[in-house]
Structure formats: structure tokens, C-alpha cells
Amino acid sequence: MQQNNSVTEFILLGLTRDPRRQKMVFIIFLIFYTGTLMGNFLIIVTIKFSRTLGSPMYFFLFYLSIADTCFSTSTAPRLIVDSFSEKKVISYNECMTQIFVLHLFGAMEIFVLILMAFDRYVAICKPLRYPTIMRRQVCIILIVFAWIGSFLHSIAQIALALKLPFCGPNLIDHYCCDLQPLLKLACMDTYVINLQLVSNSGVICSSSFLLLIISYCIILHSLRNHSAEGRKKALSTCTSHIIVVILFFGPCIFIYTRPPTTFPMDKMVSVFYTIATPFLNPLIYTLRNAEVKNAMRKLWSIKITSESK
After folding, report:
1. Radius of gyration of the chain (CA)
2. pTM
3. Of 17, 103, 104, 234, whose CB neighbour count within 10 A is largest?
4. What angle, 0 to 180 degrees and rounded to 10, lies between the N-to-C axes of helices 290-308 and 277-287?
5. Confidence at residue 304, expressed as pLDDT on a 0 to 100 scale
6. Which residues have a Cβ under 8 Å from the Cβ of 237 and sit 6 or more positions away?
7. Are 154 and 104 in contact (CB under 8 A)?
8. Which residue numbers in the chain have pLDDT < 50?
9. Superfamily of domain 9-308
10. Spans of all domains in the chain
């Protein structure tokens, strides 16, 4: 992969070079990552074994939690380990692998959020046809297409990255490998590749965000015809989804829909959507969802009772 490059490894500058702040980075992101793993694992297990969470919404939430876990794992462990390393070295092959995995599960999260919005649209706007439209086979097919779309997007990203020749320097002013910081190091004019990046990642982020906002506006508008109780339940679910959409897409659009320029806040913005959002998603979906909380209590109370006998 690196036959056209004189650079075989990169040095990540990380979030900070101050030793005291690096200790804070270790503690803060270890907590975030541990919380992400525990929260999403709890949701995955609860949906998998609960009989009350068999609807399409929870089927998609199951895959969102998987995407969250893997998306965070693509960057958080290295960031945590590198906080104790004086020289944060990542090989060329590891860098390309990180780009592939980061975009694979990032795109998967986007597509699952779209599927969740589609599910809510059908449930609220076409309730009589909901069981027919969102039957199990259809949900499985939609998830398969989401995986295929994510894989194709990731392949496109890694193809752009492999076009870049590197002849030094090899200092990446970031805590992970991604196309934007790598463009600054390439020994070529990167204008065309940046346009391709914006037309790929940027368009996916922007168009998906616009699609989701329009769909939720239609959903919220249609709620005026529902009963007060139905309106309250639908609003609770949709509000959770809208919060997740804004938290995830806001930073993504900021990073991937602009010319190849860097800003001081770029790294913190990236931290927010790669590490903070996967940590917040389980909290948002459990604290605002009575069905998930009740299913968790029932499932874990049964498990504790069975173990005590």
C-alpha cells in the first residue's frame, strides 16, 4: 500500500502535548469509552433478550448501538493509550485501516438513523399500513442495504486516501487518521481530492441531515391529528431521535463540507461526534424511553432472581 510513499508511519500530535492535560485526557476519555461500551452493551443485550422490544424501532436501535460501539472503538482506545505515549506513532497501514473502519461505522450510523426516522414516519403517518410496510423481512433487507451502503462509502474514502503520496513531514495534527488532516501532508495538489471528499462525505452528511429534518417536521406536523396520549408518546420518541441527529450531524457537516482548511476547534469537534455522541446515545434512548427502561428492569431482575436460586 505504501510503495509510492517515502513515509511508512505517521506521528499523531493528539489533543494536547501538555503532560498534565494528557493525564486528564486519559481519565476523561477512559470514562467516556467505558460508559459507551457499558451503555450500548446494555441496550444490545436488553433488545436481544427482551420479548417486549420486538418492534422495528428497537430492531434498528439494536444496530445503532452496534454502530456506536464500533465507531467509538475506531478512535477512543488509541486516544486513551496515546495519552501516555510520548511519541504517538501509527503505521501507514494502521492509518488506512482506521480511516476505513471510522467511515464504515460512521456511515452505518447515518443510515440507521435514516431507517429509524422512516420507521417513525410510517408508524405515525401511516399507522394502518405499518405492520405490512415494516414487517420483519423488510427491516432485515433495509439493514443489509445499510451495511452495503456503508461499505461502499468506506471503500470510496480509502480509495481517496490511497491516492495520496507522502514524502514528509509525517506529523498529523490530530488524534486519529482521517482524510482531512492527511490532505495537508500529501505531496500533491489536493484540490480535486478534497472536492471528491466533500462530494462524498459532505453530501452524505448534508443530504441525510436535511432528509431527517424534513421527515421529522412532517411527523411532528401530522401529530396534530392524534390523541393527547398518542401525541405525548410520539413526541417523546421523536425528540430523542432529533437530539441524536443534531448531536451527530452538526459536527460531521462542520468537518466534511468545507475547503481544506483547519481550525483550532477541529479536533474537539471530531471528539464530539466520534466519542461523545456514542456515549450520549444510550443515555438519550434509555432515559427518555419508558419501554426500554421497563424492559431493562424486567430482564435484569429475572437474571438476578435466577442467579440467586
Report:
1. 21
2. 0.89
3. 103
4. 90
5. 57
6. 57, 120, 288, 289
7. yes
8. 1-3
9. Rhodopsin 7-helix transmembrane proteins (1.20.1070.10)
10. 9-308
Render pLDDT for 94-121 as a digit per residue (tens, 0 to 9): 999 999 999 999 999 999 999 999 998 9
Cβ within 8 Å of residue 90, ≥6 positions away: 9, 10, 11, 12, 78, 98, 172, 177
Omega before residue 169 within 30° of 0, cis: yes
Region of 168 (left: φ > 0; alpha: ψ -120 to 50; beta: rest) is left
C-alpha cell at 262: 483547519
Q: Give the three-class secondary structure for 247.
A: helix
Distance from C-alpha of 279 to C-alpha of 275, rounded to nearest angstrom = 6
Q: What is the C-alpha to C-alpha distance for residues 297 and 294, in angstroms, rounded to an integer?
A: 5
Tell me the torsion sign for CA atoms 161, 114, 57, 296. Answer: positive
Distance set, CA 127 to CA 96, 112, 133, 223 (Å): 45, 21, 10, 12
Q: How far is 303 from 295, CA to CA, in rounded Å?
A: 12
**Half-sphere exposure (Cβ direction) of 263: Cα atoms closer than 13 Å:** 11
| Residue recorded with cell 405490512 | 132
User: Quick check: helix, strand or coil at residue 289?
Assistant: coil
Quick one: cell of 173? 495534527
